[in-house]
Amino acid sequence: MHYDRQIGPLAERALPDRGKEFDQEMMIMTCRYCGRKTYQTTGVHFINGKWYLLKADYCVEHGSFVSRADLDKAEPVTPDPTVREHIRLGLHVLIYLKEHQLIQKPTEGYVGCVLTKSFQHIRGIKVRLTDGRVGRIVKILE
After folding, report:
1. What would the pLDDT profile of 74-130 be if each residue is shown by its tens digit?
2. How far apart are CA 98 and CA 51, in angstroms?
3. Would you say the pTM of this structure is higher than 0.85?
4. Number of domains forming the structure of the chain
5. Which of the listed residues 52, 73, 94 is the one where a domain comes to its end?
6. Which of 63, 96, 127, 129 has a CB 3.0–4.6 Å from the CB of 109, allowing a cystine?
7. How many CA atoms lie within 13 A of 121 on its CB side?
8. DSSP string spanning 81-135?
9. Is there a single domain that holds both residue 23 and residue 69?
């Protein structure tokens, strides 16, 4: 059972049978606050003044929920905007939009979608912000 760091156990529902490609024992996690489906994400999280790389359940309305067990096992890391594993939905970032790359004018926002498919990109991971703008991450903010 998964635990929310703020409110305890999260609600669980079983998936309907959809054939071989889906595991019948796989569970859909729902947000205890709004009942929406949550997504399993891996990325950096700023908790108690430190950055950790770990898995979390993400609700588009209420953000990420990290289990106490995962937090206890996690190692502190330095967030790197060139590594895709460190980027997650809802992360607060600074990006360079394509049209502002030459003048290096940063834009602040929250990650809505990760567009870079490769594990690492030397100029930064390309993302779409929640407001629809697209650019490469320069810095990960708290």
Report:
1. 888 888 899 998 898 888 999 998 887 777 889 999 999 999 999 999 989 999 999
2. 28
3. no
4. 2
5. 73
6. 129
7. 19
8. TTBGGG--TT-EEEEEEGGGTTTT-EEEEEEEEE---SSB-TT--EEEETTS-EE
9. yes
